Amino acid sequence: MPAGTRTMGPREAVAALVSPEGRRDPYPLYEVIRAHGGLVAVKPGLMVAVGYAECDEALRETRLRVQDGESYDQIYPAWRAHSSLRAYTDSMLYRNPPDHTRMRRLVSHGFAPRRVEALRGPIERVTDRLLDRMAELGADGPVDFIAEFASRLPIAVISELLGVPERDQAWFRDVAARITIALEGITNVDRLAVADTAMDELAAYFDDLVARRRAAPADDVASALVQAHDTEGERLSRDELIGNMMLMLTAGFETTSFLLGHALLIALRTPAHAARLRGEPGFATGYVEETLRFEPPVQATSRWAGSDVPLAGQLVPAGTKLVIMLAAGNRDPRRFAHPDRFDPDRPPFVPLSLGAGGHFCLGAPLSRMEARIALPRLLRRFPDMAVAGEPVRRDTWIGRGLDLFPVAVG
Ligand code: HEM
């Protein structure tokens, strides 16, 4: 444990997570908190889960609620003035049952195993096209893996899923990056104007896409959602339709990009892993799970207790905010031997990185498939690939990943 953290209490450690040092390396701070237990009361109204079992139980506990419009009303009554926040609260990630159950059932049609499996061919094709481009760009010097590959693959795949044509994908990526600011919630209200403008542009685009799919349905998620919207009975309102389409775009974009960035960085720093990714069939599966465990792109999520909720032998009092530190749970020594060691040969396990329970990541099979396909192909295509400069990390705590990663393709 670094010297500075030795004397800290849990309250200081939680506050330090958003300091520059904490954002750079939050893992020692999770250990400081864990020294006080797997579920820790930090101050009145705030608890944190840092143990694997405690995080898992909290994610599955239906009496703990996700932040929704009602909770925004209490902390930031002006939230409705922001179209980006309105769109998120119209999506399933910000809804509780029964709304969440209804929306998730409708939207999950779009993620049926058959539909996800049908994306295998497109993922392979997009991967190879992006590798051709990297080869061209890399002939003259280092290439930024994030800009040229990691951020492009997820957008291409989500576009395929939603039925967004290739010519619109550059714009789609830009709009997604701007709206993602709103995922930070109301921590920085000034920056929300950027997200709001982007959301207005995206809503107009989706309205148009929806009109085209209504006129001529295709085999994509947009068409499936339009059908759900138009079917009497289990309806999805126009705002919910747009909110959920926006969620798919922003929830699956940078998260997958961050996963790819970490996975490649670790492989290039440990040539034995790169060699096995290149040559050993099936190795990518455990490797991707271990990357998710070791460097989760989403470090934490949160819930609210609407009433007193018993959890892991304690009580979460009504009105308490519970921060579920997924990344801390993934390094719980009670669950994982040598948790700070990157070991792709661990016995099968489920990382907390994609959540659990009712809000378990809908895009989990898709992002896993993207990484499992892309990594071996990438390393086979460029067997001499090497790190060509210091990677630049996103300066945030919850979203953890690389913004810039120069590589030489060899
Ligand atoms: C490595 C990549 C990804 C990571 C780390 C990730 C992480 C997560 C996590 C932690 C949650 C649960 C949040 C909570 O319980 O509070 C979640 C939910 C969600 N994710 Fe992902 N995600 C990834 C990729 C994707 C992709 C590719 C898509 C879609 C194309 C997607 C769509 C969603 C949706 C729609 C939800 C909300 C589910 C619900 O509220 O019922 N995600 N994701």
Automatic annotation (TrEMBL):
Signal peptide: none annotated. One of its GO terms (molecular function) is heme binding. The keyword Iron applies. Keywords: Heme, Iron, Metal-binding, Monooxygenase, Oxidoreductase. CDD domains: CYP164-like (cd20625). Pfam families: p450 (PF00067). One of its GO terms (biological process) is cholesterol catabolic process. Belongs to the cytochrome P450 family. PANTHER family: BIOTIN BIOSYNTHESIS CYTOCHROME P450, P450, PUTATIVE (EUROFUNG)-RELATED. This is Cytochrome P450.
